[in-house]
Write a structure and sequence with these properties.
The protein has 236 residues and is an alpha+beta fold. The longest helix has 25 residues.
Length: 236
């Protein structure tokens, strides 16, 4: 996600990394605007498609076509606009506002703030859209979507002396978890099996707790699509 570096933040207080003005407009305005426009246009589009004899859309489009009075169209537009607002809120709450200082890093995601002291941090890198921070035993201290973009993140962390990496330094060590493969201790297998269930249920809190349990057993796990990938901890 495109982001910005707060130019008013001093090196003593830290560099604040958040949405750029353009990205802020995209996040705050575009979803709601698209929702309203879709709500206004949907009856017209539906009518055209039904008249054109498009059968695949069926009752959904016939229902939308019945929204032909101005107040019904307005209500529909308001509902879809509210859905857009909810999408904006979700984007903001799941993305991290980051303050990088010479002594610590603060990462605020929604109402949760993680504070990491500089000596704890052994590697900082991007994994897809996620910013990942590892400690000296390769434990995952943080993984989340940042509000700032890649170039801004790299510059800020390097300027403050953090060990920025081009990618995951331990990527080659990961293996796909295969239940009862015999590669892992029984206790680790049990935690991965429980975490697999938690992932299917989308139980985020339980999933995070089981990740911590695995690290206590000497292993790291990350998710790749619907699969869990594991590796042993590595002391740097």
């Amino acid at each position: 996600m495109i982001g910005d570096m707060d130019g008013d933040a001093s090196r003593r207080d830290g560099t604040v990394l958040t949405f750029s003005p353009a990205a802020r407009v995209l996040v705050l305005v575009v979803p709601a605007t698209l929702g309203v426009l879709l709500g206004l246009a949907l009856p017209v589009i539906a009518g055209w498609l039904v008249d054109a004899g498009v059968p695949v859309l069926g009752v959904v489009w016939k229902t939308a076509r019945r929204v032909d009075e101005w107040w019904k169209v307005g209500v529909q537009a308001a509902i879809l606009g509210a859905v857009g607002v909810a999408a904006s809120v979700a984007i903001i709450r799941r993305s991290a506002r980051i303050t990088v200082g010479s002594g610590e890093v603060r990462l605020r995601t929604g109402d949760v703030e993680v504070v990491l002291a500089r000596p704890e941090v052994a590697a900082v890198f991007l994994r897809g859209d996620e910013l990942v921070i590892l400690d000296r035993e390769s434990r995952q201290l943080f993984a989340g979507e940042p509000q700032a973009g890649a170039a801004v993140l790299e510059r800020a962390f390097r300027d403050h002396g953090y060990p920025w990496r081009a990618g995951d330094p331990f990527a080659d060590l990961y293996q796909r978890w295969v239940p009862e493969s015999g590669q892992l201790p029984v206790a680790v297998e049990a935690v991965l099996a429980a975490r697999s269930v938690a992932l299917r249920k989308k139980a985020e809190k339980e999933t995070a707790e089981l990740r911590t349990s695995l690290e206590k057993l000497g292993y790291v796990v990350r998710d790749d699509g619907g699969h869990q990938l594991w590796r042993p901890l590595v002391r740097s």
